[in-house]
Amino acid sequence: MNLKSLISLMRPKQWIKNSFVFAALIFSGSFIKIDLLLITLKTFILFCLISSTVYIINDLVDIEKDRLHPQKKYRPLASGEISKMTAILLAIILLVSVIWLSYDNLSLLSILMGYLVLNIFYSFKLKNVVIIDVMSITLGFVLRVEAGSVSTKIPISPWLLLCTILLSLFLALNKRKSEIITLKNGSSSHRKILEEYSIELIDNMLTIVTPSILIAYCLYTFNSVQRQSMMFTIPFVLYGIFRYQYLMITKNLGGKPEDVFTKDIPFLINILLWIISVLTIIYFKL
Fold it and tell me: Which GO-annotated molecular functions does the record name (predicted)?
């Protein structure tokens, strides 16, 4: 066991998902307010700690199945680099830290604990219930957005919440599709829920979810304060959807969304241009 293995067990690559806590701050035009920015950064860190707790619990539950997986077998627990007792101890330390650091905001603490409970249910039961499994993942993203809103007391646009729901469904469905492709005929032996899914079923679901993302984002821009300017950000969202689908179909990268968001240069450039455009429009009131 070493520090690198412990850090790997916490899955820091997955922390990019917790950036959803910044949604309320950014889209309200309050990103330049240092006090609110620091509060949101603290919320981001808390979600990183609680999500790492969840990943450890999930790895403990799936340790035997992960040892049969072509990629997951290299994880610290599955490979034997870290013992179960060490993993349990780390999870306890992280959980205690989250409670201690968020005790001054009971609303935020309740969301963090709700996220933990949701994912414990997911690890033991919900991940084996068709459709509910991907909807549970979606709820986790909604809780991230709500945490950012609650911690700063900034209300979030219902259209942005809808975009969050649809985008997370899009990512979750593509993840299931990627798992089926990666594991091929032995998919059900690695993850029971994959027996309930097929490429055709997931593609049918995506035909509903994918255009809905674009429609929801368009409705958000139409209802925003700077609606005429915000409409110019729609092409970035459209390109992002198309690029993700391209990477899913040609390179099967949908199983690890964090790799798409951090390693695919065209996708990353598009995200950065979208962020710059949104910040410019909101903060310079164009």
Answer: glycosyltransferase activity
| pTM as predicted | 0.88
Task: Look at residues 155, 187, 203 and tell me which one is the last residue of a structural domain.
Answer: 155
Percent of the chain clearing pLDDT 70 (strictly above) = 96
Asked if pLDDT for residue 69 goes beyond 80, the answer is: no
Tokens at residue 142, please?
């909604």
Residues 244 and 209 reside in one and the same domain: yes
Residue numbers of the domain that contains 236: 157-286
Domain edge (last residue) among 122, 155, 188: 155
